[in-house]
Automatic annotation (TrEMBL):
Molecular functions per Gene Ontology: lyase activity
Name of the protein: Deoxyribodipyrimidine photolyase
Keywords: Lyase
Top-level taxon of the source organism: Bacteria
SUPFAM superfamilies: Cryptochrome/photolyase FAD-binding domain
InterPro entries in UniProt: Crypto/Photolyase_FAD-like_sf, PhrB-like, Rossmann-like_a/b/a_fold, UV-DNA_repair_photolyase
Lineage start: Bacteria, Pseudomonadati, Pseudomonadota, Alphaproteobacteria, Hyphomicrobiales
A Pfam family matched in the record: DPRP
Keyword Kinase found: no
UniProt key word Endoplasmic reticulum: no
Length: 518
């Protein structure tokens, strides 16, 4: 039986389910660069380069292994610009008996694929994505009948299921979670490891020219592109992380420092989410470092939890809740995304720094995303759909299955607590504790009201006040509500007025440094 095997741009794994039983004598692999995928959101320029360059390299590697690859480039004459259109053309070229694909990372694309059998009059086999450690039906069974879903419960089940960091039935070190050890601020003058860069080769440079020409108006700098685009580069990036960064990752995973965007972070999510690495090999490699004594357990457990726990959990949740998941807006947030999310032009130094990093690298680490950019969006009541689209656009590792639950559920609490037990709201004190951003800021992080007061301060109390009906009963917010209750009514009124003034100015896009358009 002759198969046409479609490999998507984020499925570039040598043992992808689509390829396992490939017969090089009769089968063809189809890879297509399509306008629809490049523009359904206006991806950061570096994300476009990463996906297209990695696709081209992967096709070359398959060909070197003797596989027939039919590769349609973005500007090839006749390119219809969509997956469906390109599969139709490829069927006419190859006359396959069936089409083989692996489940995609987006509900939108899977819905498209489900229509192909009828449309093309051939069997379409959609295979499980074995790059993930928790198959979709296993997650669905785990979630079924549970009133609330909690990552920690799922993570423990996954530790037991896979045996990572287990000693018999018990967690290694006697604890499941070492998060308490992982909240250190970076000491002044602390030198962080120099990070390995992967300068563009000829293939990547060609894609950079294409992106500069065809996507000039997309967000992001192109010049600093240094992401791994092949499996061997991705493995080198992983080794560099394990050798030079993992040991310090745990302690400083929540720290932020101006001018130092990467710290001890993995920087492997773009490669992992493309398929250049897989979750199992990463967890195995990290665990090995602990077993051989070169990385402490708090670092290794924290790292493995991100991949085995959090990443698998958000994917499971995405697939069990789509397509309705993004429709909720539990806190009725409707404010438009301020322009400074694109320009970085705001007097709030923390936000400016995080947008600058994002623009320069298509990257910001999880605390920058959650506790600065996401926190502001939560406190300012920005419309979830706009914030979600921004996060999907700007990060090199962002695909909807991972971005949507992280933003809609975790950062914005728009799902009303399905994914996370409380909104991750914080005042300026948190940002000041975990970073050095406040030192260079026009605002005063210690001031609670007044012209120079840090906006995060009054926005935080205003948020709790405005959403009291919805949030007061949450046991994890009992403490801040107790503090709010002890506030003199006049003080509370001043905070609400200050927040209203700030948010009005933001909305009007005038009259306030943070509202001005670039
Ligand atoms: C993100 C992306 C981009 C920019 N371009 C392509 C492309 O031209 N061809 C392709 O196969 N995939 C691309 N992708 C990745 C897809 O958008 C991704 O496979 C779906 O969103 C499902 O996760
Ligand atoms: Fe951000 Fe407030 Fe600190 Fe300025 S003072 S950097 S706005 S937290």
């Amino acid at each position: 039986m002759r198969s046409l095997r479609l490999v998507l741009g984020d499925q570039l794994h040598p043992r992808l389910a689509t390829l396992t039983d490939l017969d090089p004598k009769i089968d063809t692999v189809l890879m297509v660069e399509v306008w629809e995928e490049a523009t359904y959101v206006r991806h950061h320029k570096q994300k476009l380069v990463l996906v297209l360059s990695a696709m081209r390299h992967f096709a070359a590697e398959l060909r070197a292994r003797g596989v027939a690859v039919d590769y349609v480039a973005l500007e090839d004459p006749g390119n219809t610009g969509s997956f469906t259109g390109e599969v139709a053309r490829a069927i006419a070229r190859h006359r396959p008996d069936r089409i083989v694909v692996t489940e995609p990372g987006e509900w939108r694309v899977e819905a498209m694929m489900r229509g192909w059998e009828e449309r093309f009059g051939r069997p379409v086999e959609i295979r499980d994505d074995t790059r993930f450690l928790c198959p979709r039906p296993v997650f669905a069974r785990w979630a079924e009948g549970r009133g609330t879903l909690r990552m920690e419960t799922f993570y423990r089940a996954m530790r037991r299921r896979t045996g990572f960091l287990m000693e018999g039935r018990e967690p290694a070190g006697g604890r499941w979670n070492f998060d308490h050890d992982n909240r250190r601020r970076l000491p002044p003058g602390h030198a962080v490891p120099e990070r390995r860069r992967f300068p563009p080769d000829a293939v990547t440079r060609e894609v950079m020219v294409l992106v500069a020409r065809r996507f000039a108006d997309h967000f992001g700098d192109l010049d600093g592109f240094a992401w791994p685009v092949t499996r061997s580069e991705a493995l080198a990036a992983l080794r560099h992380f394990l050798d030079d960064c993992l040991a310090g990752f745990g302690d400083y995973q929540d720290a932020m420092r101006a001018g130092t965007p990467f710290l001890y972070h993995g920087l492997i999510a773009p490669a992992l989410n493309l398929g250049l690495l897989d979750a199992e090999e990463i967890c195995r490699a990290a665990e090995e470092r602990w077993r051989e004594g070169t990385a402490p357990l708090n670092a290794v457990e924290g790292f493995i939890r991100q991949i085995l726990g959090w990443r698998e959990y958000v994917r499971g949740l995405y697939w069990t809740r789509m397509p309705d998941y993004p429709e909720t807006n539990a806190l009725n947030a409707t404010r438009a995304l301020p322009w400074f999310y694109w320009s970085g032009e705001t007097a709030m130094a923390c936000l400016a720094e995080c947008v600058r990093d994002t623009k320069a690298h298509a990257h910001a680490h999880h605390i920058q995303r959650l506790m600065v950019l996401g926190n502001f969006a939560l406190l300012a009541g920005l419309a979830p759909r706009q914030v979600e689209e921004w996060f999907l656009v700007v990060y090199a590792d962002a695909y909807e299955w991972v971005e949507l639950p992280n933003v809609h559920g975790m950062a914005l609490w728009a799902d009303g607590g399905l994914l996370g037990s409380k909104p991750y709201a914080a005042s300026g004190a948190y940002i000041d504790r975990m970073s050095d951003y406040c030192r260079a800021c026009a605002y005063d992080v210690k001031a609670k009201t007044g012209d120079t007061a840090c906006p995060f301060n009054y926005l935080y109390w205003n948020f709790l006040s405005a959403n009291e009906d919805r949030l007061r009963g949450n046991p994890r917010l009992a403490m801040p509500y107790r503090t709010l209750d002890t506030m003199a009514p006049s003080r509370r009124k001043a905070i609400v007025a200050e927040a209203a003034r700030f948010l009005d100015a933001l909305e009007m896009s005038q009259g306030h440094p943070d509202g001005e358009r670039a």
